[in-house]
Design a protein that fits this description.
- The chain is α+β, with helices and mostly antiparallel strands.
- It is built from 8 helices and 4 strands; from the N terminus they run βαααααααββαβ.
- A 4-stranded mixed beta sheet has the order 1-4-3-2, covered by helices on one side.
- The protein starts with 9 loop residues before the first strand and ends with a strand.
């Protein structure tokens, strides 16, 4: 931890990142293994969707592509966090690199969803033959890969469930939820293929393609909102700013005049706090109060004395 000017009216400090970088390196390796599984299955499903004429399989493959992109963003974020952890050129670290890439991926995924929806609607109007047996086999294999990937990420996430909120790796948790959702999409594709094969409901296959496009669009929209908010330094919706205000004002006679909180990276935030306090209140006193917020990675406190 670094500090400065504890006797003046401004105090600024930054938490060290060595422990976080060690944890990120372990999570990065696990994430890369899941990326490899997901990418291989993604290519297989997309190719099989075209060869066997299944839009449900094709949509599921592109949906896996969306999660492969999300996992890649996670891995890239871990890499940059470790690679440039001590680089002073980055005043607030490199945690936003993943958010920048995520916003770009959201735009690309929205375009992919539009293409899938268009192709699915075309096949609803002009049905094509589907090799149900082969397509179903590939879809089942995709489900197995998704479940295996979820277990890999769940195992690591389980080690962190007991940690305090500020130290939880939200990137890894989000990756786990994305893979779990992808498994559900695979189930939908399998159901459409089985019903089409045994009951002749071939219309379900392109309908599942449209459903997959809707899922990708919703995920891309949510990703754009989340990453865009981080890039624009929106106040976190976690209520962190409100908790900081309550601790400072309820624990002292100071009044919060200015408060800015923004996200620097997974589980790490920056704070600028301007206070009005009676004679005797020092930045060091408020620093001690804020020590209960381990998620604060860069903090600046300014205290203006009032009579």
């Amino acid at each position: 931890m670094e500090g400065g000017n504890p006797d003046g009216n401004v105090y600024s400090w930054r938490h060290g990142q060595d422990d976080a970088c060690g944890r990120f390196e372990a999570n990065e390796k696990r994430t890369r293994a899941v990326i490899a599984l997901t990418a291989c299955m993604m290519v297989m499903e997309i190719a099989a969707g075209y060869v066997f004429g299944s839009m449900a399989l094709l949509a599921d493959g592109w949906h896996m592509a969306s999660h492969a992109a999300a996992l890649s963003i996670t891995a890239m974020g871990y890499y940059f966090a470790r690679r440039f952890a001590g680089d002073r050129r980055f005043s607030f670290g490199t945690g936003k690199m993943g958010d920048l890439a995520g916003f770009s991926s959201a735009l690309l995924l929205a375009a992919i969803a539009l293409g899938i929806a268009w192709e699915s609607a075309w096949r609803l109007a002009r049905p094509v033959g589907i090799s149900f047996g082969e397509a179903t086999a590939v879809a089942v294999l995709g489900l197995v890969v998704n479940v295996a990937s979820a277990l890999l990420l769940k195992e690591e996430h389980g080690h962190e469930e007991g940690e305090e909120h500020g130290h939880e790796d939200h990137n890894l948790k989000a990756a786990y939820l994305h893979v779990a959702a992808d498994a559900l999409t695979s189930v939908l594709a399998i159901e459409a293929l089985v019903l089409g094969r045994y009951f002749g409901w071939t219309f379900l296959d392109p309908l599942m393609g449209i459903a997959g496009a809707v899922i990708i669009t919703r995920w891309a929209y949510g990703l754009a909102l989340e990453t865009g908010g981080v890039l624009l330094d929106m106040t976190p919706r976690s209520g962190l700013a409100g908790r900081i205000r309550d601790v400072v004002e309820n624990g002292t006679e100071a009044r919060v005049e200015d408060l800015h909180v923004w996200r620097l990276g997974p589980g790490r935030y920056s704070l600028i706090l301007g206070l009005s306090a009676r004679q005797g209140g020092s930045p060091g006193d408020f620093k001690a109060l804020l020590a209960g917020f381990p998620e604060l990675a860069h903090v600046t406190v300014e205290v203006n004395t009032r009579e």
